Amino acid sequence: MASKTSTRSSRPAAGYRCAECGWTTVKWVGRCGECQSWGTVEEVGAAVARTTAAVTVREPARLIADVDATDAAFLPTGVSELDRVLGGGLVPGAVILLAGEPGVGKSTLLLDVAAKVAGAGTAGAGASGASSPVLYVTGEESAAQVKLRAERIGAVCPGLYLSAETDLGQALGQVEKLEPRLLVVDSVQTLSSTEVEGSAGGVSQVREVAASLIAAAKRRNMTTLLVGHVTKEGSIAGPRLLEHLVDVVCQFEGERHSRLRLIRAVKNRYGPTDEVGCFDLGEEGIASVTDPSGLFVSRTKEPVSGTCITVTLEGRRPLLAEVQSLLAETSNAQPRRATSGLDSSRVAMLLAVLQQRAGCVLHKDDSYVATVGGVKLSEPATDLAVALAVASAKTRQALPQRLIAFGEVGLAGEVRPVPGINRRIQEAHRLGFTHAVVPASPTGPGEIPPGFSVREVSHVAEALGLLISSVG
């Protein structure tokens, strides 16, 4: 009996791993303990506990005051909006993951960045560009296809090298041979290692590929840009460990039918995570948009009822956007509530507040509320502009053209303060607006620009009474 017990205890326990996020456990469970997905935990082999013995230290630890921080100085990419999001540029040895939906422009942007960095490095190195090459590894296209896109966007540079590889060993061999200052991998889900079982893009393969590329980047002090795919839910494909391993995670967003693209830093070890970069994706490539406010405001000679301008904060950047509303009388018992670019449930709440708290009768009208330019407004500060636009459409009285309004509206009809009131006012003044309706704040609106009029309101009925004579 003793021998059987000893044999049973020495046998390694079976290991199980979630196919979605890579979470591991020693016993099978129906639901993943990390991502809460059902039916994704699979057996992967034996889970053996391992320990590592201490070895001789090759490089002793140094005092933090003695570390030279100039080795991690920012390297500008030549793309101003990307530098804004990254906090100043590329950091040597940093690994940056750029994720986004198919066709949003990830490959176009990184090819443009690779060409600009290669061009900056070869400016004084002659035509060979041997001093600081840039390596672009593509696993989704052939080198000829990348060359065609590079010619179209003007990204052909002597210091830029292309390699169409899907094998991780071959890609690392190219790195050993060229010793680039910048490595671009498009994409991390297309590379695979022969040392690991599974197809490219699987949890085990993505973990191995990412770990190998990160190790090479840190060892060579080489900046690495990785393209990542996203799932249909919008999250980054592969194990969650991938986002923890890299230094910067950027999300590339944009509507299919709009040329505007936004980059947000979800994680950034070297800079802020509340900056947003704006780009214009066209036939000739992708370009930075330093002042995107004009894209979301319509240009009309005469005032039009049902429109109101607001100022929203994308990260730390104030952007002007226009809200438009249209009401049409209906005989249906259930009026239609259609929205575009706004949260439909929040708009429905604002319509109820207008009717119950401000006497604006809307239960017999179909309502259509939308934004201009395809921009999505999710910030509560746009509530007051939506309310004013709907009331203006109801009374068919146009609001002043040089007026902006922002503030959060509660169920009691109160207008609550929002962050960055003075920053929004300064942006509106810079773009030629002269009046603002803002929520009353204990600290006030701050310094008001000369010639600019600010009216503070504490209730939505007060704002409507200020701008619209009748809302019944």
Automatic annotation (TrEMBL):
One of its GO terms (cellular component) is cytosol. A motif (RadA KNRFG motif) lies at residues 267-271. One of its GO terms (biological process) is recombinational repair. Keywords: ATP-binding, DNA damage, DNA repair, DNA-binding, Hydrolase, Metal-binding, Nucleotide-binding, Stress response, Zinc, Zinc-finger. ATP binds at G100, E101, P102, G103, V104, G105, K106, S107. Residues 71-230 form the RecA family profile domain. Residues 366-472 are annotated as: Lon-protease-like. SUPFAM superfamilies: P-loop containing nucleoside triphosphate hydrolases (SSF52540), Ribosomal protein S5 domain 2-like (SSF54211). One of its GO terms (molecular function) is ATP binding. InterPro entries: AAA+_ATPase (IPR003593), DNA_repair_RadA (IPR004504), P-loop_NTPase (IPR027417), RecA_ATP-bd (IPR020588), Ribosomal_Su5_D2-typ_SF (IPR020568), Ribsml_uS5_D2-typ_fold_subgr (IPR014721), Rubredoxin_2 (IPR041166). Belongs to the RecA family. RadA subfamily. The middle region has homology to RecA with ATPase motifs including the RadA KNRFG motif, while the C-terminus is homologous to Lon protease. DNA-dependent ATPase involved in processing of recombination intermediates, plays a role in repairing DNA breaks. Stimulates the branch migration of RecA-mediated strand transfer reactions, allowing the 3' invading strand to extend heteroduplex DNA faster. Binds ssDNA in the presence of ADP but not other nucleotides, has ATPase activity that is stimulated by ssDNA and various branched DNA structures, but inhibited by SSB. Does not have RecA's homology-searching function. Plays a role in repairing double-strand DNA breaks, probably involving stabilizing or processing branched DNA or blocked replication forks. This is DNA repair protein RadA.
